[in-house]
Structures are given as structure tokens and as C-alpha cells.
């Protein structure tokens, strides 16, 4: 698992070493890692170090110290180096080292921000070391002006020191302006704000430089499944598997108006390895569902046994909504997991069971919170994704999967997962229905087994009260990977994402085997 931590957690992990007088050693390790990352990045672009230029934007704290020490190393290796001190003063030892290595220093003031921005934009590399985990709020005054001007000028390779200045390291909230980084070099632990939107969008690729505090780190604030973890947890039918042990998913979706949503989510659930899909809906929709997925079973009356439910995609009309309400009530009393999307989100009881997974986008989450008297807009949710996903999980008692470029999953216990495996082509109609089908299929597969203490989630150290959130995160990741496979850099359709799902399972299966 990829782990991420709050600034407070990282600082607490640093404290014993600071108390032991090792602060300078930590900073040297960070600076060395940062300088090496810049060198590797330049070389990977086929550029020579000697004669290339770098400017470090250095704030007055330790983040600026890291940046100045790193720039001193780069100066010694032949780069033309400049420092812009954004707060007048800087870490004394780091500044001395930088000057001793031959670096040039400018001090940002009220009048020279635009002029400096033009100079810096001509450099090959810009290191953003203005603010790190000690930041309170965003950039202000001349530093804000400089960064805003520089961002407009589209500078060369921007490397953020520990975190892009202006991104809240804990939450991913962004205080504009921010210099969008191509690479962020994080020290000791990745900051949680680099794995949640909108912060993740400013961080570029994130690499971790260990600095010797790792043993002191507590349980992470946020986790992400990577390919080996997915391979380890994916349902793997045993030799004597049969369709009922693989998981049966009941689907309440679609209406005369939105037939496609039902067809797509059933197709996706089938593609994601469910043993059987039972479709509950009107005949006119069922015809389309079966035309696309003849393997599905249409249940016009009381359905046969199911292990999990998916409700909501394309749901509309009084009669259909009442059916969904009845199914939710029986799922609740039977203890069955349910994936609740779109139209069914407004049918939720005040408290949901912890094995229900709600899959709103930002607008739907704002509406959901509004029912609990939290008045927020879609934009509010988009700017504080982790905060509002957690709040909704706390209020509803269910797992909340908030869809987006980065999808955040909050469990009612407070745990947060985040996945970012897709691409912007996936923002297309029906894409969310595919996600619903995938998560529904996984919920059915894991309902019978897999989530107990002998299952693969336990083996990854995921606590019992985090496991349904983990299932949702696995679904989000498979959805993103299928989107990437379907897109290969070009447009895609939701059906194309669904068709690519078996390839993702195959890829991960080979990963497991090899
Ligand atoms: N601890 C360690 O040994 C290690 C730490 N490491 C590194 O240190 C970083 C944390 O360093 P840090 O704690 O010095 O804080 P940092 O992020 O540089 O900035 C805070 C400074 O800026 C100021 N300031 C605050 N907000 C502001 C704003 N909005 N706009 C303008 N100014 C603002 C604030 O001053 P104040 O306003 O409080 O007077 C303070 O002086 C961490 O991210 C990592 O890179 C690594 O080297 C490993 C070892
Ligand atoms: N920019 C993006 N990058 C990656 N994935 C995205 C992006 N925008 C949307 N998605 C994904 O596409 C899906 C869209 O779902 P949703 O908003 O419910 O659309 P619809 O209702 O049209 O199906 C979500 O799973 C979301 O995570
Ligand atoms: K920074």
C-alpha cells in the first residue's frame, strides 16, 4: 500500500530525532534526495547538468533550507543556480552553503515580483521551497504575486520541495496561487494532501525520499492501493468455484427515460467477474439490458438469492423508486452490502449499515450533506474532498466513495483511501454507471468471504472496520485502470471502459502469478 501522512504526523515522527540533535542530518538527507531527483529528471530528458540553470524559491523556514542546500549541491555539480528569497530572510546555514557554492541571490520585494518571474521562467528548473509542512494558509503578498506571474509564464521543470507551496499538506485543499509542479519530492512520508484533489492536481509525480524517521511514523492518514496490492486482494475463483460462491449481484437501475444506465452497469458488473447478475426493472429496460448482456437474469417479480445490491444508476419514476426503497429496507434487515448510486442516494435512511457503499459525485455529495443540514455547494465539496467525504461517512454511517479525477473513499471509522488510476477522458456519460457495476460485483464477491480475518484484506493489515471502504477503493482503481486501457490517450465510451475490465483482471492476475 502507498501510505500518506499529515504534516502533524510527520513532524511528530521527526521530533525524537530533533530532540537528539539530528535536525541538520535530516535536512541534509532531504536536500540530497531533492538534488538527486532534479538530476535524474534532467537526465531522463536527455539534458546535461552542466550549464543548465536552476532557481530555488526559498521561504524563511526549513522548507527553504532544504531547497537552498539542494541548490548548493546542484551548483557544485555545474548548474547555474539562483535563489530568490521570498521572505527576506532564509535558513542561515543553508544560505551560507548556497553562497559558498557560488549561487546568486535575489531578495523578493514589493516591486520586483514580475521582473523576477520573467527571469525565472527562462530557467531549466524551478525548485519551489517557499512553504512546507509549517505553512499556515497560502502564499501572501509578493510571494503570491511572483508565483501567480510565474505560473502564467509556464516555467520549465517545476519541482516542489516536500509539497507545492499553497497546498494544504493534510487535506489537499489549495490556497491559490500555486506553482503547478511536474515532480514533488516528499521527505520522510508522502503528505496526505498530495493524494487528494485539488492538491494532487498541483503535485505532478510524487516521489518519496526516506530521511530516517520512517520507523516513528504512526498509522497513515490515507492509503492507496498499488498494482501488487490489487493483485493480492482481487477475487480469485477457487478450483471448485460455482456461480453462487462467486457472488450474485442484484441490480435495481434504469427507467423508461434512462435505459442505458442499467445496460451499462449490468455489463460492467458481468465484466468484473460476478457469478450472476439479477436485474430488477421494467421489461422495456430489461430488453436492452439483456440485448447487451444476455447472461443477466431478468427478475420481474421477487428475485432469487443475491449476495449484494447495486441500486440507483438511471433510476427514475415513483414506482421504480419505491421498488428501490423496498430493496434497501430488505438489504438492511438481511445485512446485505449495497452499492448506492445516483437516483437511489435520495432514498437512504438516516443511518446506513457500515457495509453500504455510497458512490456520489461532488454535486450528489453536496445534496446528500444538505439532507443532514450541512449546506455546501458542489464547488465546496470539490475544494475539500477528503473533509466532505469523511463528514458524509460520519453522518450516514456508510462508506462514501466520492468520484473525481482522484476518487476518495472514506469509511465511517474515519479511514480514507484514495485512488487516481484513470484519465480525464473518463469524464463521460455512463462512466459512473460502470464504476457502480464494478464495485457491485466486488461487493457480491466479497460478501461471502474475503473480508474476514483470514482474507486478503486482513493480510494487507486493513482493519475490519476499514474493509468495505477498501473494497470500494479497489473498485475505483479497477475502474481507473480499465479507463486507461480503453483510452490509450484517446477518447473512450463508458461501454469501452466496461469492455476493458477483464483485461485489468488479467493484467493483475499475471502480476500475481509473476
Ligand atoms: N523539522 C525538520 O527538522 C525537518 C523539516 N524538513 C523540512 O522542513 C519543512 C517544514 O519546515 P518549517 O517547520 O520550518 O516550516 P516551513 O514549511 O518551511 O514554513 C514555515 C515558515 O514560513 C512561515 N509561514 C507560514 N505560513 C506562511 C504563509 N502562509 N506565508 C508566508 N510565510 C508563512 C513561518 O513563519 P511564521 O509566519 O510562523 O513567522 C515559517 O517560518 C518540511 O516541509 C520539510 O521541507 C526536512 O528538512 C526534514 C527535517
Ligand atoms: N478527470 C477525470 N479523471 C479521471 N476520472 C474521472 C475524471 N472525471 C470523472 N472521472 C471518473 O468518471 C466517473 C464519472 O462518474 P459520474 O460523475 O457519476 O458520471 P455519470 O453519471 O455520467 O456516469 C467517476 O468514476 C469519476 O471518478
Ligand atoms: K514547497
Automatic annotation (TrEMBL):
GO terms for biological process: metabolite repair; nicotinamide nucleotide metabolic process. (6S)-NADPHX binds at residues 62-66, 132-138, 162, 261, 314, 361, 433. GO terms for molecular function: ADP-dependent NAD(P)H-hydrate dehydratase activity; ATP binding; kinase activity; metal ion binding; NAD(P)HX epimerase activity. Its EC number is 4.2.1.136, 5.1.99.6. Gene3D superfamilies: 3.40.1190.20, YjeF N-terminal domain (3.40.50.10260). PROSITE patterns: YJEF_C_3, YJEF_N. Residues 10-219 form the YjeF N-terminal domain. K(+) binds at residues 63, 128, 165. Its cofactor is Mg(2+); K(+). Residues 226-508 form the YjeF C-terminal domain. The keyword Cell cycle does not apply. Keywords: ATP-binding, Isomerase, Kinase, Lyase, Metal-binding, Multifunctional enzyme, NAD, NADP, Nucleotide-binding, Potassium, Transferase. AMP binds at residues 403-407, 432. The keyword Iron-sulfur does not apply. Binds 1 potassium ion per subunit. It catalyses: (6S)-NADHX + ADP = AMP + phosphate + NADH + H(+); (6R)-NADPHX = (6S)-NADPHX; (6R)-NADHX = (6S)-NADHX; (6S)-NADPHX + ADP = AMP + phosphate + NADPH + H(+). Bifunctional enzyme that catalyzes the epimerization of the S- and R-forms of NAD(P)HX and the dehydration of the S-form of NAD(P)HX at the expense of ADP, which is converted to AMP. This allows the repair of both epimers of NAD(P)HX, a damaged form of NAD(P)H that is a result of enzymatic or heat-dependent hydration. Homotetramer. Belongs to the NnrD/CARKD family. In the C-terminal section; belongs to the NnrD/CARKD family. This is Bifunctional NAD(P)H-hydrate repair enzyme. It comes from Arthrobacter bambusae.
